Amino acid sequence: MSRILLAFRAFFAILFGRPLPPEIVPTPARPAAPSTPSAPPPANPGSALQLLAILQRDSRLLDFLMEDIASYQDDQIGAAVRSLHDQARDSLARYLSLQPVIDGVEGAYTRSASGDPAAVKFIGNVPAGKPDGGVLRHKGWRAAKVDLPALNPKQDASIIAPAEIEIE
Amino acid sequence: MEPRYVIGIDLGTTNSALSYVEYKPDADPFALPKVELLGIPQLVNPSEVRDEGLLPSFLYVPGATDFAAGSTALPWDAQPDVVVGRLAQKRGAENASRLVSSAKSWLSHGGVDRTAPILPFRAPEGVPRFSPVEASRRYLDHLRRAWDSRMPDAPFTDQQVLVTVPASFDAVARELTLKAAEQAGYHNLTLLEEPQAAFYAWIERHPDWRERVRVGDLILVVDIGGGTTDFTLIAVTQKGGELTLDRVAVGEHILLGGDNIDLALARLVADQLAQKGTKIDALQLQALWNNCRTAKEKLLEPGNKKDEEPVTILGKGTGVVGGTIKAKLQRGDLERLLLDGFLPAVSSHDMPARQRRSGLQELGLPYAADAAMTRHMARFLRQQASEAEQGGVRRGPSGLACPTHVLFNGGVLNAGLIRERLLGVLNSWLAEEGLPAVKPLSGEDLMRAVSRGAAYYGLARRGRGVRIRGGVPRTYYVGIETAMPSVPGLPAPLKALTVVPFGMEEGTDLRIPNREFGLVVGEPAEFRFFTSAVRKNDDAGHLIEDFGDDLQELAPMEVNLPAQQDAADVVPVSFETVVTETGMLQLWCVARDGRRWKLEFNVRERVEG
Q: Among A59, A53, A57, which residue's Cα sits nearest to residue A81?
């Protein structure tokens, strides 16, 4: 079950541009690169929260990630995740068009001309110069199209999911 | 201006669809016309308008706390007072008391006033209500505006439009559908029966259809949708050396469909949960209903050999995993419920159970009392036997109408198991009659065939393609009270005068001979109005004395003659019947001097039935 959790965490890391969980990238300890103190411009949280709100609405993803699942049996988690996974994938497909960065076969030798470390990351015994290729370990993900509905300016974007009150 | 497109609209009980085809006068007459589906822009979530292939026929009446201001705007309406389509369906699952559903079934329900604001049926005081006609108007209006926003170069009102209705719709329900369409701004409108449309869709897909059927063949169209089951018989005949198609019989309106199956499955799973000590509430049952539908579809997919499919109800609060209720839909249970409950292997003499008549009945839709679709099919084919003279229907020795082909339509019949069972039962009846098995006609895209077929028919009406000859699918009668001394406690016996014979063709009219009525002027005169799908050989003017259960009463017909100063108090009139080119039924009172008044349905009156 931890693989599913990991997949979700990896997905969000990629989506929101955060570093991947260490389990997913078995990188050998890298020498700390000399940091350049250029602060990135603050991101607009609107669309990130909007996508999170959509995934919560359609699949209850936020509930799931925030829940302490340590005490539950695997089959209980499995039952919830199966249903949640289907719905989360459906809504992702509806709003994003996801494609691999390199459309190749994982495990096969792949040439790459890219010099953009954000798009292609070289790992392992990377030579001194720019390498021309290597074994494709992860195809990467690229949002070829983002088709989120326009935000209602009157609405409080910080509300990801409304509270629910049932009148009985 | 000549219409550029023919538009076919399937105004369904649970989903509506719009197909269209371009009319090209100089096109190759043997080329297949290209019928396309329109993506219908609709709210799928608050502030989110998206194209979907189907428009769910749901209307939600939002209150102050339902949606944020401005979040229900449509491209053509910044502040609509109701929500129609996918979002209405979604929100309605959370708050059913503001949801209008199955407006179409209400439209054909004679027990209520169909022009009065009665829906949502269980809405609390203070919620605006809509009549079944108005709700239908809203769906049709949405489709018109959807078209105009997608096809700005070809305004909807300039195109030729076909709207489909169930074959079992009586004259009142048809008239009300037409009225809703007119109020929604439709012109150039024709109504078409759904099973016929489904058959046209088959013809559209099979240009070689003339090689697939022969003269004397009888095609049974079985249409099982979300809420209704409909049977129709189409006979293949010959006229002037050309194959022609005659619609020879339609069934009664049966409120029984796929939703019943899914609800039965949900109840079954809920029972199994209850036995294990897990109680679920109404909202969870709703979720279970949807999940059972999905699980059923998965289990019935071709090639699926799994014995069970998990059905999950996610936890209600933030504890989604902890609150999750796990259940399973067993293949054995599903098959038992389908095969024994909905499609039992019955004999062709087995008739459905009659509607219960308890003294106090909750007012609501008259759902079928018997869930066995095969029994309804037996009754339909038996009913055709009671009038042996009706030509064109192939019969077995016992008188059972015996089809040679079956065409399936409706989402429920996507399931091979259900199709196989229906075929198996039908073939066992045919074997008893000593006749060979039926051939299934392969239909495709059972959800959208009706709107596609309607668009094709629009072309057929303009000379391209074959047309099914139908005529009026029922016989209609006016009730006449017998003139005799009244007996306390007993109503005067009623006789029924045939005013519209079965099969009366579009574009014809007839005068009822030898019968005049004294019509009082200055006040509304009312006629009791009856129909029958069973009696097919009553000629116009024929008087029936004792009709038992064969006739159903419809909304009364009403005529109001203005009093004139110089006119007599009572005007002798006779009846005239007109069936218009578009298939609408009209009854007229004609005076001796040629003055005419049209009889209108009085749907405001409660009909006891």
A: A59
Question: Which among B195, B245, B249, B247 has a CA at the least distance from the CA of B215?
Answer: B245
CB contact under 8 A, B45 and A149: yes
Same domain, B267 and B140: no
Q: Do B47 and A69 touch (CB under 8 A)?
A: no
The answer on pLDDT for B430 being more than 90 is yes
Please indicate whether, in this complex, the C-beta atoms of B320 and A84 are within 8 angstroms of each other: yes
Domain boundary among B469, B497, B514: B469
Nearest to B501 by CA among B452, B441, B544: B544
Is a pLDDT exceeding 70 seen at residue B576? yes
For residues B384 and B335, membership in a common domain is answered with no
Provide the pLDDT for residue B465.
64
Contact across the interface for A82 and B322, Cβ inside 8 Å? no
Tell me: do B276 and B409 sit in the same domain: no
CATH of the domain at B146: 3.30.420.40
Mean pLDDT of B337-357: 84
Instruction: Give the distance from residue A103's alpha carbon to the nearest chain B alpha carbon, in angstroms.
Output: 30
What SS3 string covers B202-240? HHHHCCCHHHHCCCCCEEEEEEECCCCEEEEEEEEEEEC
Q: Does A149 touch chain B (CB under 8 A)?
A: yes
Entry pTM:
0.82
Query: Do B403 and B421 reside in the same domain of the chain?
Result: yes
| Strand locations in B3-135 (E) | 5-11, 15-22, 35-37, 40-45, 48-52, 55-56, 59-60, 83-84, 99-100
A66 contacts in B (CB within 8 Å)? 318
The boundaries of the domain holding residue B262 are 258-342
What is the predicted ipTM? 0.71
- Domain count across chain B: 4
Shortest CA distance from B281: residue in chain A = A168
Q: Are residues B214 and B298 in the same domain?
A: no
Residue B271 within a domain = yes
